[in-house]
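Holo prediction — zinc ion.
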Amino acid sequence: MRRPAVCGSCSISSAARLGAALLAFVAKPLCTLPPAKLAQAIALSHWRTALYFAGTAWLVLALAVLVRLRTGSAIAKVAARVSPRAWLQGLVAAPLWLLILSALELPAALIGHHVSLRYGLSIEKWTPWWSDWLKSTVLTLLLGIFILRVLYALMRYSPRRWWLWFWIFTVPVEVLLTFAAPLVIDPLFNHFAPLAATNPVLVDQLERVAARGGLRIPPNRIFLMDASRKVTGANAYVTGLGGSKRIVVWDTTLRVESLNEILFTYGHEQGHYVLNHIPKGLAFSAAAFLFFYWIAFHLMQRLVRTHGQSWGIDAVGNWSSLGLLLLLASILSFLAEPVANTFSRDIEHQADVYGQEVIHGLVPDPQATTVSSFCADAIVWLDDPHPNRFVEFWTYSHPSTEERAEFAARYDPWLPGRKPRYLTRSN
Ligand SMILES: [Zn+2]
């Protein structure tokens, strides 16, 4: 039986909350899957969990073995033969290590796509899948070589403060990438067209949602993505920054959801837009990166001092340390996952609340619409209705569907004595 969702700062009284919690405890789940789909959803959830944790364990173990076998030293020697200049040696050491990393991550990616095909979540054939993999590997190489060469130059320039200099360098890079992603990177993988070009009537409806929130999102900032070439699930998201900021709706959403459900899905995305979740996310990750680099600095310094000789690592700023750095980055990223996901679940909940509030007055029953929107998506995504609590805490970027639906079903801030969290009553 699922634990009732926590109500956060919503304006439901304690008695009503207790009543709703008891009701949720004894009531049937809001999103019920047919038995065959339920069995598939549970099996898929097991696959995802196994792939994530086993994939991480494999990556960490393989990198640890490579470090122990002095691979860093061997690659640094090859690089030294190309040029005596450390800056140019990076053109050999960085791509070699990045290719090793891609190769180590490939088995989990292959199994993941095979499972997605088997459960009908993906319809992308293997040839286009490999083409996408190749494109993302080339992008990783280009960006990774540039960033790693800057990092190692900073390590040599300032052995004690490189973590701070590198942070100062990466913050604007992250902002720039967030700005450029929808303009340069995303179109490499999917086609985007203004939603108004194919669905002007829907855009009119969405404009009503925007107006209800006291907002004018220009129609040319709402895009339709041709997700149906690759996947069956529905989705929408906000991306970009400043001039590139936009709302993207997958074309699959138009097949899976009714008009009212689409209005909620759009309202949720508008919530991310209005509540400035992209700048907040950037600020959160900038703070996390500072901490991350500081820990990496101390661990690298200590490990190279104590084990450098046996692992063939001369100094932190030498290219021979790159394997160790990637190993530490993999471990730290894994440990940071629940922190990032807790932040993500919080802003997703805020967007849910906003979305439900902003469709009030536009759809007959905002609570029912929100619940049915979650349930429609859960069926196509084969969401496990009762995910393991630990797995949910560690890996879920959104609250579970059941938790979102339970909250939506009892959240009605328009009742007398209650107050909407984001919209004013006069809206
Ligand atoms: Zn969202």
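READOUT: Confidence is low (pLDDT under 50) at residues 1-26.
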